[in-house]
Amino acid sequence: MPDQPSPKHAKDDPRVEDTQHAASQDSPAAEDTAAVVAVDTAGGAMQPSAVPATAQSGQLPGGSGTVLRRIFTGSGIVSVLAVLLALIIGGLLIASTDKQVATTAGYFFARPTDMLAAVWNAATRSYIALFQGSVFNPRGNGLAAQFAPFMETLTIATPLITAGLGVALAFRAGLFNIGAQGQIIVAGILAAWVGFALHLPFGLHLLLVLVAGIVGGALWGGLAGLLKARTGAHEVIVTIMFNYIALYFLRYLLNTPAFQRPGESNPISPILDPSAVYPQILGSQYRLHLGFVLAIAATVLVWWLLNRSTVGFEFRAVGANPKAAQTAGINVSRSTILVMAIAGGLAGMSGVAQVAGTEKVLTDGVAATYGFDAITVALLGRSTPWGTFAAGLLFGAFRAGAVQMQIQTGTPIDIVLVVQSLIVLFIAAPPLVRAVFGLNPRRRKPARAARSRQAATTGGAA
Amino acid sequence: MSTTVSSSRPGKPQPGGPTAGAPSAAPATRPVSWKTPVLLTVFALVSLVFFGFLAPSQTASFGISTGEDFFQLPALEINAFAGGIVLSVLLVALAGYAVYLKIKNQPAPGWLAVTFIVIFVAAFLIWVVGGARTPAISLAGLIAGSVTLAVPLVFGSLSGVLCERVGVVNIAIEGQLLGGAFTAAIVASMTKNAIIGLLAAAIAGAVVSMVLALFSIKYLVNQIIVGVVLNVLVSGVTGFLFSTVMQTNKAQFNSPPGLDVIDIPVLSSIPIIGPILFRQSLVGYLMYVAVAVVWVGLFKTRWGLRVRAVGEHPQAADTLGINVNATRFWNVTLGGAVAGIGGSFFTLVAIDSFTKEISGGRGFIALAALIFGRWNPVGAFFAALLFGFADNLQSIVTIIGTPVPSQFMAMLPYLVTVLAVAGLVGKSRGPAASGIPYVKG
Amino acid sequence: MAENVALGAEPTKAAGFLNLDQTRQRIKEISDQYGFDVDPDALVEDLPVGVQQRVEIIKALVRNARVLILDEPTAVLTPQETDELLDIMRQLKSRGTSIVFISHKLREVKAVSDTITVIRRGKVVGTADPAASTTELASMMVGRAVSLTLDKAPAQPRETTFEVRDLTVIAPNGQHVVDHLSFHIKRGEILAIAGVQGNGQTELTEAILGLQERVSGSIVLDGRELVGRSVKEVLQAGVGFVPEDRKVDGLVGTFSVAENLVLDLYDKPPFAKGISMSPAKIMENAKARIGEFDVRTPSAAAAAGTLSGGNQQKLVMARELSRPLRLFIASQPTRGVDVGSIEFLHRRIVAERDQGTPVMIISTELDEVMELADRIAVLYKGKLVGTVPAGTSRDVLGLMMAGIPPEEHAQTPQAGTPAATSNAEGADHA
């Protein structure tokens, strides 16, 4: 039980799960669990009613797959291939607007290799710049500088992770929280105000900033949950509208004396007190701040909440089958409000990371696009806490590297949006990815041979 | 030919869960919700206090005629205080009537809410203008401007109607608008022909929609996920191509010829109505046509009956030989084309070039209009007008200088939508099968 | 109704515009021909279920169907309505229509068919003649010999601990779906609630459980009022509940068997301390229950949704019977369950009764009602038609299910005749 308490728990790391099944082929138990894991992850752990399990299993390679096919068609490999496919398409898009490619395309039929080389160069040049801007820069002066891009990645990943956790947690309870953007903004407003308007001792001040931010996000998220629970208003619509309401409210505030920096005509707040900002945890040469440590802590907390607590049990039950949850005595309304409040609180941590970590002031761009990116982060992370953490790091790397890429190669940052959204689309549709890479069972000879062998052992249950 | 009859599938979808099959034993005393009367009362009191008692005593002036009209009507001059009080009292009366109906357990009729909204808006307008530094606006200009701003919203919400009626949630309206705007700009620039640009916009919108349809119907990906992600994707692709292609050669790729306003002689000179109906761009006229065609199509034709059946009860439709997924696919595609045309408005009519994120979240307002309009093309049209009005008022208010911060005016459509989904449209519901992928068996 | 009938084969005027008048005409013709009595302009949702069933058949006839497939059409009909349907089927047959009649009710199958094909787990296991005996057919369906009768000791009712008084439930659409209902159950007694599907049974159980919003009257268990309490409080008072649709209300399909076995106990010791849950204890519990109820599952970690219907039902039953109960309610306890598991589930229900728990069974299957019940209450349109002793004849119960109280059809000889022992076997031939 502690190792594999349930498919839901097992879902936390699909890759591990898959290898387990590959290893324990002969056990029929493993087979069923595998099917369920695949069902769940393929569906993106969204409102289950929207993705009927039967429909999902219909496209699975079948309950009695082979070791080989299980590995190649498992969700782990699909994730990797989805990222690869998205990068390839992004590369083609980069190449398509490249001057060198255009020139060589003019004589494509005379010397096709020229153009192919140009395509390769254009794409790889951008991606190398992206890598150097996000992980390791060999031209840096000393090890510290060489790893500076990675620290930048972690810094940018911080708000992505916490907001992503908020979205993921709501997903697990069957709610589509598009409102991380608004929750970050409201959190930012409260946290920033505490940060610049109150003057308190070190420690206490920062703690209060953090609490204010979390409470702000939780209120904004919880309000959406309350509307959903009490009136049945669809949370997608409500949270989208709440994003705009929060944004215009912030714009209004930034033009009022209480928030506008004295003597400033632009909508910008005073700088937060030094006692109100996150300390930089790896020295002043990096922007990386305490918020990242808190993001790790939040990930652990969400994992525990979902998998080891009664509250999480309720959330998951409500998300998977609200009617059964209600019949079993779970208060669905309370769960809806609570999960949206916690999700908002997590997004609120992102708001705090922005105003107390990186920006140190409040502007109307405080949330940047973190709230929307958080949705893709949660989807890529399949709504599991550690998956979301990993996805946050990946998208953080994209964001950090894109800046460098634009400077070095002139490739616009927008390419990151393209790659990001393609990844999520592909991951949500494993059959498509498998088809693109020719991994569908029917097309693989070895798989077929192995399959018939398997059929013999399982009595042809396929 | 064979036909399936099954106990578990009464042909007509039935609202509500477990009780649906219960024969009506007792007289159906449908309980009337307190929501509407309470909401109306609150708004009536707000109006009475703010627009009535706290109203400025200036005289608000509303110009009715424009210089080009047949005959000139005098401007409407209303004392803000008196006007506010009179209208607020009317609102209170309406709210009182709703409460009375509730006590008698009768639902408030549709005209009540509509009248209430109209009067409330009028009271608000008088209050805003009365409190301005220059308390005079052109009513004709305000309404005509609202219609213009509503054009992309109407197209967007029609796209939503077409998709949701067939059972697919379309959160990607924003992406369809943006894709249409971009394609219209680039194609019109390259061909030097705005009409070709318009057609290209429709195709671009349809392509975005096809991706939505492919992923949600074939691969059964959650429709909301696909919609959200598509918005990001279109924003990324158009942003990328804008920076790499359009910016480098603006003359060739980003200077589309515009679609001019076509004045219909004589008719366009009728005060107020003239500019609204007969002084529009091609896209504006197409909007009226589209609303009418979609309404007639949905409710008066075989195609419409099938579409609605697929959106309400796909299983039943399937057993009667309708190809559910094909119907869905082509309707979603059609919806995308409609939204694409709406997108062309930005680059061919409003502004003569493309910029990043030119649609600016209007796709989401269109979504709101769809819900506020209760999934009905005509309802969506009027909801879009209301939101266009709010949008227009926001800019006018900034010019004439009123006490209301413009940010709150900008917030209005969103606030109204939240109120709508939370209370006002409580009784209405979307198509039953919307958002649920259909899998045979 | 015309819109419904038109759908799929819509008559149109020029340019795709609908021509519903033509459809109305056709409906009238067919309705007269077969003696259906329907109004083309009525809204389908306002029609009684029996008439809705006819609308479905008209739909088929409008299209001149030569093959008619009826999939479990009698689930929502009273025995008398069923007989009418069977008559219509015979009429259609005589006019050359081929009919495929899918049903799990052996009596009906035997009454109307010319050949019977038995399928089990998606495979044809054989064909039989309508003259074959019920036991033979049942054995074919299960794959082994089954006993269709239940050995049940006579009930030994003790004091009354559960009582429903003047219960009324109002549905969101304003209907009184449960209408001034009063009944009681003694300890050690099984009360079966019979009735055609959709006559308020669902709402009655939901009201007891605290799932219904607009409830008036009183529900008393062990002297405590249950109306107005939350589901959690009702469960805590000792109510065990097996819902009618296990997939919708009873199980979370994607959860493991182990998690489903604590679905309503997850926050109680020993499974949780505060808000921290104990996976080890949950697994231990699962192993014990799986063994006790013979749930055929690959493992306790398998998803409940992957189990067969019978095993899912055992799972729900195992969970509900795993704690001391003061009242046990089972709604459609054997719907969609293979005949083999039915035996087992019925025995467990009787065992719970014999422990002295008041048991309430809601079933639309008259056979099941007659087999399990010590007393039978019949619901019609949310009202109690009457309460009769076990052994009341099928005809009397059938009329009661159509809303006619026993005293009004006194001409029926068995009416009100008490019979101590269950006569399911006899009822089969009634």
Q: Summary?
A:
Chain A is mostly helical.
Task: Outline the structure in words.
The complex is a heterotrimer of chains A (462), B (441) and C (430). Chain A is mainly alpha-helical and 462 residues long. Chain A has 2 domains: 7-73 and 429-458, no CATH class; 144-383, no CATH class. In chain A, 71% of the residues lie in helices and 0% in strands. In chain B, strands 3-2-4 form a 3-stranded mixed sheet. Chain B has a two-stranded antiparallel ribbon with strand order 5-6. In chain B, helix 4 packs across helix 10 (282-300), helix 5 (173-191) packs across helix 14 (362-372) and helix 15 packs antiparallel against helix 16. Chain B has helices spanning 35-53, 80-103, 110-130, 139-165, 173-191, 194-218, 223-246, 250-253, 273-278, 282-300, 302-312, 314-319, 324-350, 362-372, 377-400, 406-424, and strands spanning 2-6, 59-63, 76-79, 136-138, 261-263, 279-281. Chain B is mostly helical and 441 residues long. Chain C has 430 residues and is an alpha/beta fold. Chain C folds into 2 domains: 2-142, P-loop containing nucleotide triphosphate hydrolases (Rossmann fold, 3-Layer(aba) Sandwich), CATH 3.40.50.300; 160-427, P-loop containing nucleotide triphosphate hydrolases (Rossmann fold, 3-Layer(aba) Sandwich). Helix content of chain C is 35%, strand content 20%. Chain C has 16 helices and 16 strands. Chain C has helices at residues 2-6, 20-34, 49-62, 79-94, 106-112, 134-142, 201-209, 231-236, 246-250, 257-260, 279-293, 309-320, 339-354, 366-372, 394-401, 424-427; strands spanning 67-71, 98-102, 116-120, 123-128, 160-170, 176-186, 190-194, 214-221, 224-225, 239-242, 272-273, 276-277, 327-331, 359-362, 375-380, 383-389. Chain C has a 6-stranded mixed sheet, sandwiched between helices. The two termini of chain C are 36 Å apart. Chains in contact: A-B, A-C, B-C. Chains A and B meet through helix 4, helix 13, helix 18 and helix 20 of A and helix 7, helix 14 and helix 16 of B. Strand 1 of chain B pairs parallel with strand 1 of chain C, so a sheet runs across the interface.
